[in-house]
């Protein structure tokens, strides 16, 4: 009985649910006092919060980015000259035993490691996410390559792209490294929602990249696209943030002629 009551009220204890509840209560209060015009603002805010945090809309938007890169179950990953993982999936952490903390996009690193262990290429390149440390900045790729070397998890040659500012910067340095090493093609690993922009950048530079998407937020997750919540939560806001980041990023990159 107590657990059922707690389960009922838990969504309202989350920040988004709590703010939504306040907006709803304020709307009811104003309506009871016949202050119709004043009630329009909290009512509109409550509706907006629910659309983002409770409706399936953000999931549908993310699915439009992810579904083109979904691979059929059991699809074989082809062999290529090099595996390339784009950065942006970790941060340094003094208190973590490994010295780093994976973000939700940490699937990029797990996928790259799995493909390297399967010998899907002759070399592994880990991307240039920009990590802060006490004495400055360090490449995310260097943190990963050092960790993999210390544990002996990868036997193929490993490289990192140094401290890079964005995906275009990573692609340009990969292009130069590929020319130096004689690589003709690569497996490109990044989050599914980010793959459209990443793949377009590599193609624009003439890099023969085979997209290997991971970190799917919606596509392939049973029912996720159609999930509706009575009380809004944070997930919808997170998905909408990812979608807007990619759409704005695509617009900016297109203006610069990068895609």
Topology:
Blueprint: H1 2-13, H2 15-32, H3 36-53, H4 57-66, E1 82-85, E2 90-92, E3 100-102, H5 107-117, E4 123-126, E5 130-133, E6 136-139, H6 140-151, E7 158-160, H7 167-181, E8 185-191, H8 192-204, E9 208-214, H9 234-255
Parallel strand pairs: 1-4, 1-8, 4-7, 8-9
Antiparallel strand pairs: 2-3, 5-6
Describe the structure in your own words.
The protein has 259 residues and is an alpha/beta fold. It folds into two domains: 2-64 and 227-247, no CATH class; 75-215, Rossmann fold (3-Layer(aba) Sandwich), CATH 3.40.50.620. The chain is 51% helix and 15% strand. The chain is built from nine helices and nine strands. The strands form three sheets. A five-stranded parallel sheet has the order 7-4-1-8-9. The chain has a two-stranded antiparallel ribbon with strand order 2-3. Helix 8 (192-204) links the parallel strand 8 (185-191) and strand 9. The model has no long low-confidence stretch (mean pLDDT 90).
């Amino acid at each position: 009985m107590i657990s059922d009551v707690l389960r009922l009220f838990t969504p309202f204890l989350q920040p988004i649910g709590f703010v939504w509840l306040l907006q709803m209560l304020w709307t009811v209060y104003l309506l009871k006092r016949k202050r119709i015009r004043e009630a329009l603002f909290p009512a509109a805010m409550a509706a907006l919060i629910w659309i983002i945090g409770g409706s399936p809309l953000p999931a549908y938007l993310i699915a439009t980015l992810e579904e083109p890169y979904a691979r059929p179950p059991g699809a074989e990953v082809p062999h290529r000259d090099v595996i390339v993982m784009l950065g942006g999936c970790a941060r340094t952490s003094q208190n973590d035993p490994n010295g780093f903390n994976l973000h939700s996009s940490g699937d990029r690193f797990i996928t790259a490691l799995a493909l390297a262990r399967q010998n899907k290429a002759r070399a592994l390149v880990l991307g240039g996410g920009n990590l802060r440390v006490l004495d400055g900045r360090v490449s995310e790729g260097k943190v990963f390559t050092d960790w993999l070397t210390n544990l002996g998890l990868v036997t193929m040659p490993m490289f990192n792209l140094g401290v890079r500012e964005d995906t275009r910067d990573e692609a340009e340095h990969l292009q130069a490294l590929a020319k130096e090493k004689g690589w003709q093609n690569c497996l490109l690993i990044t989050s599914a929602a980010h793959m459209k922009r990443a793949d377009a950048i590599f193609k624009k530079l003439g890099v023969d990249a085979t997209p290997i998407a991971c970190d799917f937020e919606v596509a392939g997750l049973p029912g996720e696209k159609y999930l509706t919540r009575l009380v809004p939560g944070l997930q919808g806001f997170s998905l909408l943030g990812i979608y807007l980041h990619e759409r704005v990023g695509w617009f900016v990159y297109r203006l610069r002629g990068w895609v």
